[in-house]
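Each lists sequence, tokenised fold; shown next:
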Amino acid sequence: MTTPATPAIAAQAILRFLRMSPQKVRLVIDLIRGRRAAEALQILRFTKKRAAHDIEKVLRSAIAMVGPCGFTPGESGSTLASCTCRLSKPWTRPRASCAWTSCRYGSAT
């Protein structure tokens, strides 16, 4: 019989309504996907992309949800196992119909 591995602590933090293209955010998420939390924070801290700051805030929020027993920043083998990052469909601003814009009054062509 095999002994089950110790379960990794899981946390979920969601960033919604970020005004940035999903392609730009996905570039940064691909850098940290599957890495340990401490390593992912180091990567995000030195990445020169604007999305890195927002993703770092979300990652820190997920770490805070785990609590102080689950993560120690100086510790290399923290129990927050790996970063599982997802990027869902982005929020889009609803477009105004022609009835509400200047084309109704003949100034737009």
In short: The chain has a mean pLDDT of 75. Residues 9-87 form a domain with the Ribosomal Protein L22; Chain A fold (CATH 3.90.470.10).
